Amino acid sequence: MMPDEILRVENLTVRYRSADSKRKTHELNAAGDTGKAEAQNTAAGDAGNTGKAGTQTAAIGDTGKTEAQATAAGDAGKTEVQATAAGDTDRAEAGIRNVSFSLKRGELCGIIGESGGGKSTLLSAIMGLLQEKRGGGAANAGSAAEVTGKIIYNGREIQSAGKAEWKNLRFKEIGLVFQNQDERLNPALTVGEQIAEVLRKEITDTTLLEQELAAVLHSVGLEPSVKDRYPHELSGGMRQRVFIAMAICLHPPLLLIDEPTTALDPASKQQILQLLQRLHREYGTAMLIVSHDLEVIETLTDNLMVLLHGYIIEKGKTQNILEEAKHPYTAALLQSSTYLNPWKDLWGIKEAEERQNCPFYERCTQKSSECLSYTPYLPPECSEGCACAKNGIQTILSVRNISKTFDTGKEKTIAVKDCSLRVRHGEIVALLGKSGSGKTTVLHIIAGLLKKDAGSIVFNGTAIEKNDLLARDHALQIVEQDAFSSMNTALTVREIIAEPSVIRYHKSAAAFKDTVMKYTKLCGLSADEAMLNKRARELSGGQRQKTAIARALSMQPVLLLADEINAMLDDSSKVNIMRLLKQLQYELGFSMLLVTHDIDLVKKVADYVYRMDAGRIVEEGSITKVFGKEN
593 pLDDT band (50/70/90 cuts)? Predict the structure, then answer.
């Protein structure tokens, strides 16, 4: 453990008991309070020392009260098992798998991931709530979960600590801010009584205790009179402040925070965020913050970890990850955020039962056979990295310093000057600029329709000297601005869609009947004989564009070049075409380089944008970086 580390976790695995695991999981799904009640009983410890807590036993000091609530905050027996219970795989019995990381003194680190990913289980394990024994015998005997690996706090291993040691650690050394729910507090006790139980770990004098209680309430922005209220008499924001007060009243060097703003209104949320920021400034407290709210993560944290099915799959600086995620899962998670994508139509992450070692394999569009033998792992020393067999999202296209000058004999026109751009797997990248800025020229150079004067093009890791990408399988295709002029008007819809395959494989259109039918339907065209036998001149503008898209996708490209594809359509057709294209991209997983002058369209569909002016790239970044988050 390094001198500046306050916490180090090595190969931490939480595995729930396999006996009757399916039955127990079904019970937890059907009756969500089961796992929580077991967790509370597990952590109750010396619950017999107090009669006030009743069935909601807890464990602060010798009373057994708040630690039970801390266990409930983790919901270790409930939420994390529910999400990992499908099938007979080893992962179905695991809450977290080989988790390793380190936290420096005063560091602010966030943890994100979908519900059921292992976030709350991790906090509960660090707090020692999953390791509590409910009976005698060996460590973990009779406990709800088997915990292996190391948890090292301030240089000493605490994973196997006994009850007495944990009583000294909890809230003195490690505090936990509970997720904001009524059941986390004892309804039979006033707020003051519950905070006082924590304070009694260090203060026995009644007068001093009252003074410190008033000071703690003041520090979290609560009036002294709040101490006489019961939990049900508090608003959501006030209740969250009580949780924070209980966690910080003994000034622990490490604070574990579980969803601090859940169910709060925007004003209360901002107050809680400001409170946590002030506490960090005043006390230098290290914080490990779990949240699904990316505004909370961006506001409070400097570093970030991403959990998926119990694995840490990405680590790094918070701003770096939010700006450009490396792991395909992280990118999909961020693209589902309304905070980061205020203009987009959001699609969410596909649901699938994961059966392989990689917890994102079934849903990943860049997966290959090498992924089947890969198990995600990032060592504790790794501060920035991605646990992916392909080292993260692959770059499909890399264009470096390309230039193009048109010479008419009378004058020379510099159309493109020293332009560089990149498209990653599954991204929609926009090339934005006014007419005449050089956008289409760049696109045609990439497609091989124009020769570049200088620069390089790398496609799927291979430098392209003779650009024949349009003629290759699973490479790139282009959809032009004027679909009509890009078609042979003597051909039928059936022949137009089959045309690339006919040229590539030297067979008749009849040989590609199934391909034509598949992509006709995918692109929203009627697959009946009447439509398939129409010629290009008989089609509406929207139908022509759908036919052009079907023709391009019939070659199953990994990159689609789209040049102002809705510029010649009416507003309704524009919306329909872009919705169709986005849906196809979501389902098929291809990348897209979209040339447009429409800023609203870019905000709506793109993940990354390059802005062109007078033949040069003048600005680039994510949509939020270029346009901000304002609606």
Answer: very high
Q: Residue 262 pLDDT > 90, yes or no? A: no
Beta bridge partners of 152: 8, 157
- Tell me if residue 297 falls in helix, strand or coil: helix
Contact call for residues 310 and 91 (beta carbons, < 8 A): yes
Residue 492 DSSP SS3: strand
With beta carbons less than 8 A apart as the criterion, state whether 432 and 438 touch. Answer: no
Token pair belonging to 403? 């230039």
* 204 within 8 A of 69, measured Cβ to Cβ: no
Longest CA–CA span in the chain (Å) reads 97
Each residue of 258-269: b (16+ CB within 10 Å) or e? bbbbbebeeebb
Q: How far apart are CA 171 and CA 529, in angstroms?
A: 73
Quote the CA–CA distance of 599 and 516 in Å, as a whole number: 34
Q: What is the 3-state secondary structure (H, E, C) of 152-184?
A: EECCEECCCCCHHHHHHHECCCEEEECCCCHHH
DSSP element (H, E) containing 95: strand 94-104
Mean pLDDT along residues 376-381: 95
Alpha-carbon gap, residue 549 to 555, rounded angstroms = 11
Radius of gyration for the alpha carbons in the chain, expressed in angstroms and rounded: 29
DSSP per-residue string spanning 518-586: HHHHHTT---SHHHHT-BGGGS-HHHHHHHHHHHHHTT--SEEEEESTTTTS-HHHHHHHHHHHHHHHH
User: 552, exposed or middle or buried, with CB in 10 Å at 0-12, 13-18, 19+?
Assistant: buried
Does residue 577 contact residue 525 with C-beta atoms inside 8 Å?
no
Tokens representing 72 are 């409930």
Q: What is the pLDDT of residue 612?
A: 97
User: How does pLDDT run across 455-504, given as a tens digit for each residue?
Assistant: 999 999 999 988 899 988 899 999 998 888 888 888 999 999 999 999 98
Encoded amino acid at 224, one letter: P
Provide the CB-side half-sphere exposure for 553 (13 A, CA). Answer: 28
Mark residue 258 as left, alpha or beta (left: phi above 0; alpha: psi -120 to 50; beta: remaining): beta
